[in-house]
């Protein structure tokens, strides 16, 4: 479900999107590029990242892919520096990349499982924000992608839920600290969204899950999440910071 922009709100601006090679991240890249932003795609999978960048370029936009390992602080710092060198500045960032957890008993995961998920889903967001905030000037904005599972408990995915709750805490705390500096920081919490990941994970069950997952009775589309992200970065949301916005068809209600 694509929503063509009414105006080019991001002309002359640069946006960094982690996990921009697929799903919600790719939709965010496409949305900002359609409004004439220069898009920096940060992803572990550079083949898919460059495929997204090439599509944007073929449509007359500006996009470049940078390889990053979000579990490695040095890799995040290096990739952010490359973005700054390429585009000369950073106006917006979307911290979207994350790992998932297969449903299992609370007692089953071990410390290696905890470290694997938290290194990307929480520590990676923290390191990314630190690099982004150092680069941003007043007027900048960051949107972190949490999850509906970052708002409520969900049995079987305790580590994932804890990490996504942590993203909400990072967002609120940083928003308060950087509000006086003219940088807005918000989070979006998607519900069940159609993507290559959810299709691979749920298979034939996806349609049935989507119908029962929320009051709207359907699955969300990546472009719908991207629309919320773009709005939060835009001047229309200039008085909003520290907000945690569910985009989940009413599931969290």
Q: Which labels suit this protein?
A:
253 residues; alpha/beta; 7-stranded parallel beta sheet
Structure description:
This protein has 253 residues and is an alpha/beta fold. The protein contains 9 helices and 7 strands, in the order E-H-E-H-E-H-E-H-H-E-H-E-H-H-H-E. It has helices at residues 23-34, 46-58, 73-87, 111-121, 123-135, 158-178, 196-202, 206-213, 222-233; strands at 14-18, 38-43, 62-67, 92-95, 141-145, 184-190, 244-247. It has a 7-stranded parallel beta sheet with strand order 3-2-1-4-5-6-7, sandwiched between helices. Strand 5, helix 6 and strand 6 (184-190) form a beta-alpha-beta unit. The chain starts with 13 loop residues before the first strand and ends in a 6-residue tail after the last strand.
Q: Quick recap of the structure?
A:
This protein is 44% helix and 15% strand. The radius of gyration is 17 Å and the shape is globular.
């Amino acid at each position: 479900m694509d929503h063509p922009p009414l105006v080019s709100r991001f002309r002359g601006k640069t946006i960094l999107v982690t996990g921009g090679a697929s799903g919600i991240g790719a939709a965010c890249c496409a949305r900002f590029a359609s409004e004439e932003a220069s898009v920096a795609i940060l992803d572990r999978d550079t083949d898919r990242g460059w495929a997204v960048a090439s599509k944007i370029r073929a449509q007359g936009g500006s996009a470049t892919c940078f390889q990053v390992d979000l579990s490695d602080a040095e890799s995040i710092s290096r990739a952010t520096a490359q973005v700054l060198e390429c585009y000369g500045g950073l106006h917006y960032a979307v911290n979207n990349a994350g790992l998932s957890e297969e449903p299992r008993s609370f007692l089953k995961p071990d410390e290696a499982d905890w470290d694997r998920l938290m290194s990307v889903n929480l520590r990676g967001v923290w390191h990314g924000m630190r690099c982004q905030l150092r680069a941003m000037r007043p007027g900048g904005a960051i949107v972190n992608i949490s999850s509906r599972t970052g708002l409520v408990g969900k049995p079987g995915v305790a580590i994932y839920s804890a990490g996504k709750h942590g993203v909400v805490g990072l967002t609120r705390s940083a928003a308060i600290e950087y509000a006086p500096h003219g940088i807005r920081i918000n989070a979006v919490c998607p519900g069940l969204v159609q993507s290559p990941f959810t299709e691979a994970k749920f298979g034939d069950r996806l349609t049935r899950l989507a119908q029962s997952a929320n009051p709207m009775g359907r699955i969300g589309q990546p472009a719908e999440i991207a629309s919320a992200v773009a709005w939060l970065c835009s001047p229309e949301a200039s008085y909003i910071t520290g907000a945690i916005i569910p985009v989940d068809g009413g599931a969290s209600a």
